[in-house]
Write a structure and sequence with these properties.
Layout: H1 2-21, H2 30-52, H3 60-86
Helix pairs in contact: 1-2, 1-3, 2-3
Length: about 90
């Protein structure tokens, strides 16, 4: 059950990142949402939570870090896709 929850959380955070970046107008890329959400949540959420001193608890600092991490991963993904499209 935990794994399903983590996958859904990653997809939700990744979709939010795409909507914030404005790429959701064309339709959400669920593969990118899953990957950026999971990677961004792990890296961003973990780092922000540890820096804030919250540990590994579910706190607002971890949620904010998750979104920031997913924004960074999505932004990099979009930039790489655009470079590939130019070739």
């Amino acid at each position: 059950m935990l794994i399903i929850g983590l996958i859904l959380w990653g997809m939700l955070i990744g979709a939010a990142a795409q909507l914030i970046l404005g790429t959701g107008r064309k339709g959400l890329n669920w593969g990118m949402a899953l990957a950026s959400g999971l990677i961004g949540s792990f890296v961003g959420g973990l780092l922000i939570s540890l820096i804030a001193g919250d540990g590994l608890e579910f706190r607002p600092s971890g949620i904010i870090g998750s979104i920031i991490g997913a924004l960074i991963v999505s932004g990099i993904w979009i930039a790489v896709d655009r470079k590939r499209a130019e070739k």
